[in-house]
């Protein structure tokens, strides 16, 4: 996968196109990610014995990884990434447009 947990991403297709957010979880087996504030779902919660209140809650649903791009702070938009090997032998992701290194 070209993104990982904690990355800032932009949604590029679907009902939340253009939204930016941080990746909360990466579901590698299904090639899906959960993005903060995108694909909000409503869930009807039943009260349980531990004094939790019943009601309707909203939570983030998963999005296919092909529908998100890594957000570059320098370019101010979603960009494709490339791989680059630094002098110390560490492999890092870089912005294809401006060359900025992502951690």
- Helix-residue proportion: under 10%
Amino-to-carboxy terminus distance: 15 Å
- Count of beta strands: 11
The proportion of strand residues reads over 45%
CATH top level label of the domain at 8-75: Mainly Beta
Question: Treating each run of at least 4 consecutive H or I residues as one helix, how many helices?
Answer: 0
* Shape descriptor: elongated
Q: Biggest sheet, in brief?
A: 6 strands, antiparallel
Report mean pLDDT, rounded to a whole number.
Answer: 93
Order of helices and strands: EEEEEEEEEEE
Assign the structural class, choosing from mainly alpha, mainly beta, alpha/beta, alpha+beta, or little secondary structure.
Answer: mainly beta
Regions with little confidence, pLDDT below 50 for 5+ residues: none
Could you explain the architecture of this structure?
With 103 residues, this protein is an all-beta fold. It has no helices and eleven strands. It has a domain of 68 residues: SH3 type barrels. The strands form three sheets. A six-stranded antiparallel beta sheet has the order 6-3-2-1-7-8, with no helix packed on it. Strands 9-10-11 form a three-stranded antiparallel beta sheet, with no helix packed on it. A two-stranded antiparallel ribbon has the order 4-5.
Task: Summarize the entry for a quick read.
The chain is mainly beta and 103 residues long. It has strands at residues 8-11, 20-27, 32-35, 40-45, 55-60, 62-64, 68-72, 77-79, 81-85, 91-95, 101-102.
Compile the SSE list and pairings.
Layout: E1 8-11, E2 20-27, E3 32-35, E4 40-45, E5 55-60, E6 62-64, E7 68-72, E8 77-79, E9 81-85, E10 91-95, E11 101-102
Antiparallel strand pairs: 1-2, 1-7, 2-3, 3-6, 4-5, 7-8, 9-10, 10-11
């Amino acid at each position: 996968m070209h993104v990982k947990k904690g990355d800032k991403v932009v949604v590029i297709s679907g009902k939340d196109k253009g939204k930016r957010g941080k990746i909360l979880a990466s579901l590698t087996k299904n090639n899906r990610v959960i993005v903060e504030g995108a694909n909000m779902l409503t869930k009807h919660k039943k009260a349980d014995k531990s004094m939790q209140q019943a009601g309707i809650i909203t939570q983030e649903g998963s999005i296919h990884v092909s529908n998100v791009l890594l957000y570059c702070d320098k370019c101010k938009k979603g960009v494709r990434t490339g791989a680059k090997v630094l002098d110390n032998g560490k492999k890092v992701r870089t912005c294809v447009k401006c060359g900025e290194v992502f951690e």
